[in-house]
Amino acid sequence: MSDHLLPKKPLFSFLIALFIALIILAILQGPVHISLTQITTIFKQALLLNQHSDVPAWQSSIILDVRLPRMLIAVFAGASLALCGLVMQGMFRNPLASPSILGVSSGASLGAVIAIYLGASLFSAWAIPFFGFIGAIISLALVYRISVRRGQISVATLLLSGVAIGALNVSLISLLLALSLNNWDVARMIIYWTMGGLDGRTWDHVLIIVPIVTSGFILLLFYAKQLDLLLLGEQHAMSVGVDVKRTRRNLLIISSAMVAAAVSVVGGIAFIGLVVPHILRLLLGPAHRYLLPACLFSGAIALLGADLLLTLFFTEQAIPLGVVTAACGAPFFLFLLIKQRFVIN
């Protein structure tokens, strides 16, 4: 084990303990004080373990219909973005690869905005995720095709094409926003969506994101060994029997679906997919059988923590969640650029 790597068991124990603590804080924290005893009673009542209680119905509604779905969406969206960043960094052998840098997040946002602009989101809760998935997979397919030359991926072309496709997606989102200004309700929905947030999310959103992220995580576990081999290079992976083309295609589809699910539910949340996997790779090493579960917990912790910062310190003003993640992640991205660590050790 390298000197800079941390022991895995204590680190996982710390992550799980922090994850549980943040979940409890997320349920407790809010403008209305509800005690831990009352919350316990509400959960028992919901699980039919205690059918008679003195807890008012409005308190049960706050916990079960507002705070609980908000917490679950933060957990699964953060985990999804971190996992997809891990997969892309491993697949493309570059620590700067992430859903936002490669244009996947903006592609999903563009798809979601198209669904909002066309009014499709009014007819089905699945319209935004569906359009988001199409936008994400088209953007990633374009970046991938532009970057591949004679079967090899050019890292510089990959990053530049991701930035270019991302800029194109943002420009199209701006165009749709300009066209929708005569309908302020649609324009306001697009603005809030692009800035990211958890306000107003319901159990419908939970039902969208939980199955996709859960199944995506399980599928990614089967690709842990292939991701390890891809880190050593395409030629090495092919020499030991990995179908590189097929593996990349499947990983792209899985990660695009997970990004689309996250972005279509929480909007534009940047830098979690870049920062979290990179830090964990430095702490745990390159083995994806450890990195995948670590990213699951750490991504959830990152988004839960950002949301708690908002609810604790910005109670008077509605600060978008995407602003917090960008403010924390952008300096780290600049640090990576300055250090020029373009190759994963």
DSSP helix count? 14
Stretches where pLDDT is under 50 for at least 5 consecutive residues are: none
Which structural category fits the helices and strands? mainly alpha
CA(first)-CA(last) distance? 14 Å
What is the percentage of strand-forming residues?
A: under 5%
> C-alpha Rg, in Å?
21 Å
Mean pLDDT: 84
Binned, the helix content reads: over 70%
Overall shape: globular
- Biggest sheet: strands side by side, in what order? 1-2
SSE succession: HHHHHEEHHHHHHHHH
Number of strands: 2
Largest sheet: 2 strands, antiparallel
Structure description:
- The chain is an all-alpha fold.
- The protein has 14 helices and 2 strands, in the order αααααββααααααααα.
- The protein has a two-stranded antiparallel sheet with strand order 1-2.
- A hairpin with a 2-residue loop joins strand 1 and strand 2 (152-153).
- The radius of gyration is 21 Å and the shape is globular.
- It starts with 7 loop residues before the first helix and ends in a 6-residue tail after the last helix.
Would you kindly provide a brief summary of this structure?
The protein is 74% helix and 1% strand.
Write the layout of secondary structure elements.
Layout: H1 8-28, H2 36-46, H3 57-91, H4 104-118, H5 127-147, E1 148-149, E2 152-153, H6 155-179, H7 184-195, H8 203-222, H9 224-231, H10 234-239, H11 244-266, H12 272-284, H13 288-313, H14 321-339
Antiparallel strand pairs: 1-2
Helix pairs in contact: 1-3, 1-13, 2-3, 3-8, 3-11, 3-12, 3-13, 4-5, 4-6, 4-7, 4-11, 5-6, 5-11, 8-11, 12-13
